[in-house]
Amino acid sequence: MHRTPLKIENSHDYYLKNCTVVQGAYLPVIESGYVRVKDGLFAEVGSGSPPDHAGLNLIDAQGAILVPGFLNIHTHCALAVARGRFHGSDNMVQDFFFPLESKMRPEDMEDLSYPYMMSALASGTTLIADHYYHAGGTAKAADRLGIRAAIAACIMDLDGAHLTKDASSGYAEFEKSFAWSERVFPIVGPHATDTCSKSLLAGLAKIASAKKLPVHMHLSQTQSEYDACMKKYGMTPVQLAHDLGLVHANSILVHLISATQKDFELIREAGATAVACPSSQVIYEHMLDPKLLQESKVEVALATDCAASNDTADLYAEMRTYALLSKSKGVQWSADELLAMVTLNPARALGLQDKLGSIEVGKWADFQLVQRGPEITPFLFPKQDLIYSMSTRLISAVVVGGKVLYQNGEFLTVDSINRVDQFQKRTADLLKRAGLS
């Protein structure tokens, strides 16, 4: 089918007309409409033809579909270096992760971060929330690629490849590692309750509160974490994190596969967001019970995790996988609920619900342009079709803040061939240093 190039580079004011506008979860679909993008924001959204504004850049989308940019709220981009190694392994953390991660250096991280981040962008993601070591390098990759990024340094003091002395020094070192901006910004990242001391967790909670930053942490991510926390503190990981001030309206709580019904009541009351990574969780241990999530009425976001435990960064695939796995367990999510899990809900967790998550006037112009193709024809049920039938090969453009970053298979801000080559060289060197080549 014919694909129309989207030629809007260096234009700060333009219309996209003749398009289907999937405004977002719980919002109506405009079957034939237009949007105006001005100075990086959605300035107008309407049905029919755009108003007559002489001299403005009018782009005929020829029936293409506008979809809000997705937010992948839990990634470890640099772990693309471990792609494919997790399948069939019973002791991945001790046998591979720790030896590998202990040899990672700050200068490795930018090169290691590009491939997974680029694949996320190409599949419609316009914001990633990354959580890993030497995070300034990941921030630099996000900045150069042009994607939005909420970056957390993985901070721990009990177990792991890179330990920190205390909360203040650990966060301060991270904060000065990059020149932060509105598009690439820092958040606070305690690793987990079994790798962080109580004092470190409390210290990071205070930093997040003082700086008004979201918290992004693994929580109750394994049965062993749950057992260790109960043995050491006499409470669940969720209860401990809650008591230390880490569970609140801007908390991104990832995995939760061993959390209890009472834990989810705490999460709901605090207004925190539970993050399910279904593909990763199935590969690693088991999926977070969707029935428990649905019945507890907590806010749910979907994420891909890393290439070590989910080989793709594709949130379309994750929505479909989650919908089908949930249905196999007797849980039905609506198309609006699923779409919210990759748009509105993660935006709310980051405190950006007024700026991201839907195509509405005044919000940042982050969106995907999806060509009509055989996979989604006849497109009579737009939201359902995007979740169950979509192929990311139909994405012809991805736009962040009104700027085209990816178009017709090409990345416009970085040399993709060079970036992949550099990644391969870094990977070979890192594996050799870690004794894993």
Layout of secondary structure:
Elements: E1 13-22, E2 29-38, E3 41-47, E4 57-60, E5 65-68, E6 70-75, H1 92-102, H2 109-122, E7 125-132, H3 135-145, E8 148-153, H4 167-175, E9 184-187, H5 198-211, E10 215-219, H6 223-233, H7 237-243, E11 251-255, H8 261-270, E12 273-276, H9 278-284, H10 290-296, E13 299-302, H11 315-328, H12 335-340, H13 344-349, E14 367-370, H14 382-388, E15 395-400, E16 403-407, E17 410-411, H15 416-433
Radius of gyration over all CA atoms, rounded: 21 Å
| Sheet having the most strands | 9 strands, mixed
CATH class of the largest domain: Alpha Beta
How would the global form be characterised?
globular
CATH fold category name of the largest domain: TIM Barrel
Count of individual domains: 2
Give the low-pLDDT segments: none
Name given to the CATH architecture of the largest domain:
Alpha-Beta Barrel
Q: How much of the polypeptide forms β-strand, as a percent range?
A: 15-25%
CATH superfamily of the largest domain: Metal-dependent hydrolases
The CA-CA distance between the termini, in Å, is 43 Å
Helix content: 25-40%
Q: Report the structural category.
A: alpha/beta
- The total count of helices amounts to 15
